[in-house]
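Predict the 3D structure for this chain.
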Amino acid sequence: MPDSALRRDADFRRLWMGQTASQLGEHASLVVLPLIAVLTLHLDVGGLGALRAVGQAPLLLLSLFIGAWVDRWRARNVMMLADLGRALVLAGVAAAALAGGLDLPILLVAGFALGTMSVFFDVAYQALLVRMLRRDQLLRGNSALEGSRSAAQIGGPALGGALVSLPPASIAVVANGLLFALSFGSVSRIRHREPAPERAGRAPHVWREVREGVRFVAGEASLRAVCLASGAFQFSFAAVMTAYLVYLTEDLRLPGGAVGLVLAATGPGALAGALLAARLPGRFGHGVVLVAAATIGNGALLLVPAVQGTPAVTVPALAAINLVVGAFGQLVNVTVMAIRQAVTPDGMQGRAAATITFAGMGLTPLGSLLGGLLAGELGLRTAILVAGAGMMVSPLVMVLSPLVRLGRELPVPQDR
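Done. Predicted structure below.
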């Protein structure tokens, strides 16, 4: 829940509630659609890699343009349209499942549409936060929103895994869509009225605004390093997760509910990481915390291929690994977000966020495809080990960059 200072702000509460429901829906859909594909359509690892890649493709294809559009539109309206669109897409998937016509092409189209609208929502809520709050409130605001993301990591996978295991599959899809409807209702009640962004509606300038955002991020040493480190991490992590989901269901033969519990273990860890992020960077320095957290969190995934045995053994072991991954991964995420917001001028927030999303997440479709390829050629355990080793490039990039030298105080925007 937001801290006491922000709790009195009704609009922030509505933003927090909407973002919480949206994140819960996003994390549930990351489990619901792939598990339906595996358990109902009997999709193999190559097909699952393709499904995940299509859902992640908007990060590569559209995020730069979405950042420019968000800087030109009212962020609240963007969030409402994204929520409405995602609810309608999932309603269509549920209808297809009830009619017995659900197939892979429908899931591919739904995955791409959900991924596109999720990018719109995620970029827009970050921009709206900056437009709603004073700069001295941003750290508390980000901490509250990251806390809701942690709660979604707990509830989303567990809810999705449990519902998919109950027939019919349309129940899980409908429940997933209702979460986006709840987010729409909360965001629509925000009373803060943003001024119409300058040059809104003048589409010919989108390319110029995209270039401005890319040039700003590329020209700022800390943000440039964040892009490189994030790209290395997300590419390898996408490969890991493609093999990981099949490894859980086929090699370890865990039911949907157990898969949800294993994945949900990142949530409590992420909550702990968000709390640590409020204290550790100010005590030990932002650079030291970033490198140490990335090394520990990424390295923990290298233990996954060693896990084997009965569910009584594997579920607690995998949950413990995911707890560590969640804690230190969230510590990295919150620290990086603070650095990005600190060095970025207000008018560039949407484009900076989208450019970093593009650089960090844009390679995830290729990573998902690689994960399917490695699993088919090397086997699931070896694929997870190889892809997990690739994640260690991320802290290495940080060590070789200006990020490692960041101290206890955050830098300031270049125009200050």
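The radius of gyration is 20 Å.
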